[in-house]
């Protein structure tokens, strides 16, 4: 997997679980990297068979949540610079060239934001709150993710730059996949929001989901994405509702067990 395109070598980390439909394409998009580390949560499909065609650096670990998994993986990278890519993302040739040029320039930055071009239901989503989607994915090995169960971001002490080119992000296979993932996210985000929510009320179960729909569909111009924008807005609102249902259910279970 070695490459000598940059004087600063890079490790690509790919967390995955049952991603046989995605893993080959993402590995193809990063096979130029000096090192590829696949962090697998004990896949039961052909994910690992495919991954072994591209790298011998495969680690397996039980999944707790995304930030926990990534923070476990980062210190094991050989190189100082890390590019972290999810299995449903693709590094375009233009982004690859920009990454290599940025590292060749001996950057003073600690990390870099990378925008994402999102696709859902075979359509590029241009609005719906996803238009400004960006993540810190290129960073120095000393960086770590914040301790959040859902949507954790890198904590970087130092200057953070921004790359011009974007990752391709194939968000969800279909509506069922989107719903399943939002249900899982809601369960995990209930952990993050529990302390901030002393009591679950109609405000949390009705007004907050309603505003989330309004935000994505109206304020973030989801209506311009047509049917796809409407579906995204509804499911995002559903995720907020489920978050507070989970908080309420967890507390009721605790009370019953006393």
Question: What distinguishing features does this structure have?
Answer:
disordered N terminus, two-stranded antiparallel ribbon, 12 strands, 39% helix, 7 helices, Spore Coat Polysaccharide Biosynthesis Protein SpsA, Chain A, globular, 258 residues
Describe this structure in words.
It is a single chain. The chain has 258 residues and is of the alpha/beta class. It folds into two domains: 10-171, Spore Coat Polysaccharide Biosynthesis Protein SpsA, Chain A (Alpha-Beta Complex); 174-257, no CATH class. The protein has helices at 23-29, 47-51, 66-73, 93-104, 175-193, 202-219, 226-257; strands at residues 10-16, 35-40, 58-60, 81-84, 89-91, 111-120, 123-124, 134-140, 144-145, 154-155, 160-162, 167-172. The strands form two sheets. Strands 1, 2, 3, 4, 5, 6, 7, 8, 11 and 12 form a ten-stranded mixed beta sheet that branches. A two-stranded antiparallel ribbon has the order 9-10. α6 packs antiparallel against α7. The radius of gyration is 19 Å and the shape is globular. Residues 1-5 have low confidence and may be disordered.
